[in-house]
Amino acid sequence: CCNVLSLPFCSLKILNLSWCKISSTNGKVLANGIKKNKSLLNLQLTYNSVSEQGGECIAQAFLENNTIRHLDLSYNNCGDIASLTFGYMLQKNQTLQEVNLDGNPLGRIGATAILKSIIYFHSKTKVSMVNCNFDCCNNNLLFSFENPMAYSPYTLDLSQPHHVAIFNQCCDIVSFHEKSTISTVTIKGVD
């Protein structure tokens, strides 16, 4: 079903894949379909196992999708890496009207990124975060809004969506705080 979304003749408007045991691997396949789909308006993915990697890929897909208006990703174990990427996506996507992230372990960093997008970038997307865990944290996510220089120097792989989000957050910090600077940027492997 995930592959069908990317076919040019797909004319689905509403797709409910709740309780379908969609894993992070299937979430990545679904994300490719979301990127290419031009008809879907409402996508419901409640109570699956999309997790960090799948959630991150789905968030990244919304940087390219400009048709889906409503996304329900509640209770999918999407943590702070996925929600940091969602925060970045909400700054860029102009078509999403509602995102439901209820019941996910968003963590402090992920929730802050989402709220920052709504407040500072005037995202018009309504985001629901009921019953989320904001105290959890992923030790692999080396970023902090409270002290962004705590993990510097950053080595970021910009093929990773959450690294793009971290780079974006660092650029925002520099633009908002005149004493902050980015001293060295090395880009490797760019074609």
Q: Which short descriptors sum up this protein?
A:
191 residues; alpha/beta; five-stranded parallel β-sheet; 5 helices
Task: Describe what you observe in this structure.
The chain is α/β, with parallel strands linked by helices and 191 residues long. The protein is 35% helix and 8% strand. It is built from five helices and five strands; from the N terminus they run βαβαβαβαβα. The chain has helices spanning 24-36, 51-61, 80-92, 107-120, 161-176; strands at 14-16, 42-44, 70-72, 98-100, 126-128. It has a five-stranded parallel beta sheet, with no helix packed on it. Helix 2 links the parallel strand 2 (42-44) and strand 3. Helix 2 (51-61) runs parallel beside helix 3. It is globular and about 50 Å long. It starts with 13 loop residues before the first strand and ends in a 15-residue tail after the last helix.
SSE arrangement:
Elements (H helix, E strand, L loop, with lengths): L13 E3 L7 H13 L5 E3 L6 H11 L8 E3 L7 H13 L5 E3 L6 H14 L5 E3 L32 H16 L15
Parallel strand pairs: 1-2, 2-3, 3-4, 4-5
Helix pairs in contact: 1-2, 2-3, 3-4, 3-5
